[in-house]
Amino acid sequence: MKGLLFISHQTDKVSYLQSVEIALQGGCRQIQLRMKDASLSEVEGVARKALELCRVYKADLYINDYVEVCKKINAKGVHLGKMDMPPAEARRVLGEGIVVGGTANTFDDIMYLHEQGVNYIGLGPFRFTTTKKNLSPVLGLNGYRDIVEQCRTSNIQLPIVAIGGITINDIPAIMETGVSGIALSSTILNADNPIEETKKIMNLIKQYKQ
User: Could you tell me the CATH number of the domain that includes residue 110?
Assistant: First the structure.
């Protein structure tokens, strides 16, 4: 998990599926379908259509939370929040070929997820974000630097994706902390031209060694 990860979001202008297509048209090749509080059938319906789009663009689709949907449609992977199924249990359900990611806010979280066998970490939030309920303490640049250094010291080599209230102007400084990638949602969708904004972000992230 490196580079840009787009997190789907529904607004008054676009549906979840339309948000996915916008990111794909802008060049993003890692999509996380996040539909909190939606029913299982709703998520599966959108996930199947999102997977079709991802295949057209040769992109990877990750499902947030819904392990059974990930397995049913054979998505690239699943992302699990702190209150979701434990990653080790998800691994038993999904098998070894599927990517399992987990949300962390502290280095202790990362140690737990490492022991649980995740493939990557979503670390945040960078700052306050309105797209997430029950927000953990914000990390800021110093938080990322400290946690990345602790991972190096402990020889934990999991890719770390920064998430939570990140704008395009934050990306250079965040990438310089040593993270592998950036997860975005509102920054792209709230732009005047979301597709062009995605292209700009992709080019910006590519400048950094990942």
Answer: 3.20.20.70
